[in-house]
Amino acid sequence: MKITVIYGNMRHGSTWHCTQEILQQLMHLDVVEVTEFSLPRDLPQFCNGCFCCIYKGEETCPHRSYTRPIEEALIAADLIILASPVYGLDVSGAMKTLIDHLCFQWMSHRPHPAMFKKIGLTVTTSAGAGLGHTTKTLKNSLVFWGVQNVVTFKYPVSAMKWDDVSAKNQAKIRRRARTLASRIARVAKAPRRLRNPLFRSFFFSLMRGMQQKNDWNPLDRAHWEKLGWLSGHKPF
User: Which residues, including other chains, have CB under 8 Å from residue 160's CB and lie 6 or more apart?
Assistant: First the structure.
């Protein structure tokens, strides 16, 4: 199983430790190859909002030297993990920067066909509030990229750093990680058993109708036409 992990910060705090625990459990169940990115180290630039990726293609992004390796790793992965602690009741600024840079591959623009066969996992921890909203932000990106199955791991660690997380909470995290890893491994070995998410089917059909009328972005429309999606084919 190929896994791509993107961390929303560079600290080895609670979110990092939870993610590592899940990875260790997966390694006990399957042969895995892990590629990791830490933000902002691997994407130090904010999105300019220049719309180059939308109207001219992702290769014209002024930060393409940073976004290309991340995008290629996402496409190659069987499992995508987006991990961010709660910052200001939402994802870290660095994670939001990544999400902004990759909006071109949302289903409303140019989704990559490989994304429709993947498993997605969000990992979030917090010392207090904001777990639900942060998880939703991460999950939304995976869903709108077209990812088939998205699971979540969130835990209120009630501590500012991992060393202060109680032994009881650490034990609970290990148990949850073990259960989640088993679930992911089962899904990865039998992907045909997964149902097509209802929302994805609905939204894809909605976007296909929009692209059939698209006279404002030839690049997006050409993408859908090339893949045969405007003539009835689906990537799932």
Answer: 127
**How many CA atoms does the CB half-sphere of 51 hold within 13 Å?**
4
CA distance 145 to 94: 19
- 172: three-class secondary structure by DSSP: helix
Q: Which of 140, 3, 9 is nearest to 73 (CA)?
A: 3
Distances (CA, A) of 196 to 122, 137, 204: 19, 21, 12
Q: What is the CATH number of the domain that holds 24?
A: 3.40.50.360
Residue 161 is assigned to a structural domain of this protein: yes
**pLDDT computed for residue 190 by the predictor:** 82
Helix (H, G, I), strand (E, B) or coil at 125: strand
Structure confidence by residue, pLDDT tens digits, 41-55: 999 999 999 999 999
213 found inside a domain = no
Q: What does R_g of the chain's alpha carbons equal in angstroms? A: 18
**Residue whose C-alpha is closest to residue 26's, from 95, 77, 70:** 77
What is the pTM assigned to this prediction? 0.96
